[in-house]
């Protein structure tokens, strides 16, 4: 009897686990055409990992001293997630999705002026030890770009504030210091903002747009400098964008050097790379939760094919 009962419980658990599909699995199945569902390099659930790591916007997790932090609201679910490296005291990336449900305006950044904050609500992330995060004030602005002592760094959003204006609570979460990287002002308010606007202005062209953004923190050659208290300043920044529409899945990347120069008038096409190249540059495996066959197809579209497909986005 004990043996029978143990077998029954084990069967029930396995059946329940394998029966639980997700909206993202349905997205893949409805993407058009037949695609093998084999996935050898997807993120797997494990103790200490949030369930969200299987979503399509997530890259392959680094592991080691890194941890995935998820911020969410009760009304809308996940606002964004980030990978925090406790040893490096830095975030590696932030990821999130843009859908018709959250691509709307329910809050304006200027409205923070009329709250207790009096302005933008920059604050430490309550889910990460405060001593691992940059001080809210004075750290970035008190540090300068190499060779330019009169310059300073902004608290540069990775998940953009403007990408999360559907609710006050969600917008506030984008101001956590864990979602910031030091960015010299002319870069933050210039080419980086132009890339952000490209995604914001065109996200409604797809059913879902999956975004993963960050700065380079892992290779010494890709670190520009450190702030006065030793926080990493990335030499390069990137965006990986996956769109699902009626034709299936397509993706592109932005790769841009963190320069103390105004490049806001540059054509975005000169910063476009395919995902395969972006992975080579960053060492990050993007969109790993796609079935392997589909992931390979999406990532290996040439830069020319990518520019052509996303022509309406203005990146050609």
What characteristics describe this protein?
23% strand; disordered N terminus; single chain; ENPP1-3/EXOG-like_nuc-like; Extracellular Endonuclease, Chain A; seven-stranded antiparallel sheet; two-stranded antiparallel ribbon; endonuclease; 8 helices; alpha+beta; 316 residues; metal ion binding; globular; hydrolase; hydrolase activity
Q: Can you tell me about this structure?
A:
22% of the residues lie in helices and 23% in strands. By secondary structure, it is an alpha+beta fold. The protein has a seven-stranded antiparallel beta sheet with strand order 1-2-3-6-9-10-11, with helices on both faces. Strand 9 and strand 10 form a beta hairpin. The longest helix is centred in the first third of the chain and has 18 residues. The termini are far apart. The N terminus is likely disordered.
